[in-house]
Automatic annotation (TrEMBL):
It comes from Roseibium alexandrii. It comes from the Bacteria. This is Uncharacterized protein.
């Protein structure tokens, strides 16, 4: 993937690229947390079934 930067637009593109990266990072973290929560809920569900709640 080739990215060409124009000298005048460089700061703007850098800013938007940074914002996008931050957003993508947040999405990644949210997905990871959601996966952990899902696993925890499944785990708790199996425990409660085993105990007989």
């Amino acid at each position: 993937m080739a990215v060409f930067f124009l000298p005048e637009a460089s700061p703007v593109l850098e800013f938007y690229g940074y914002q996008f990266l931050k957003f993508a990072k947040c999405e990644e973290v949210i997905q990871r947390l959601r996966r952990i929560v899902d696993k925890s809920l499944i785990f708790l569900g199996t425990i409660s079934e085993g105990v007989g709640f």
